[in-house]
Specification:
It is a single chain. The chain is of the alpha+beta class. The protein folds into two domains: 44 residues; 152 residues, Sandwich (Jelly Rolls), CATH 2.60.120. 18% of the residues lie in helices and 39% in strands. The strands form two sheets. Strands 1, 2, 3, 4, 5, 6, 7, 8, 11, 12 and 13 form an eleven-stranded antiparallel sheet that branches. A hairpin with a 2-residue loop joins strand 2 and strand 3. It starts with a helix and ends with a helix. This is VPLPA-CTERM protein sorting domain protein. InterPro entries: VPLPA-CTERM (IPR022472). It comes from Paracoccus haematequi.
Amino acid sequence: MNLLRKAALAAMLALPGVGASAAVIDFSNASLGTHTGYVEDGFVFDKVRVVSASCANKSKQNCAAENAFRETTLTRLGGGGFTVNSLWFSIVSAASPMKLVGDKGSVTLAVGDMLGGVAIQMAKGYAADLSRNGVFQNIGFLKIVDLTLGDPGTGHFKGNLRFDDLDVTEVAPVPLPAAGGLMLAGMGGFAMLRRRKRL
């Protein structure tokens, strides 16, 4: 039994290295304008426009914006999975629903939709809790799409939305030594149970 306890203790000591790192992408240090390959806290947007109007936190001003029929894609720098826990958004134009797309599915938020028991209103800011939505857990990418209602180039139904404060967590793979330790501890436990039954 002492061997089993030692193996379990070794496995537990190996687990702290399995932790995932979290970040809040808030564009606070970004210059205004359009950025290709914008990087913050180990995450990268393929193309994002940073503005200072209609943003979540008036003390810092900056947030990201999408115009009609535009989208941006967030990935981890160097690849790998991540989880989107929450984000802040504002639909500046009623004709501009926001679609969040990951490799496991999508969610669309529009003026009039219910979010946490509250109806989304135009030009108001909302924090969307995505932590319980499996669609945004352990994903390889997140697209933020402006689904403007209307035809491109007509000048009608100009869309515009803002997003900010993306709370993301890197999904860390189990390191090989820890995985091996856990497997050995489990095998040792089964061996001890089997040996105990024989006695």
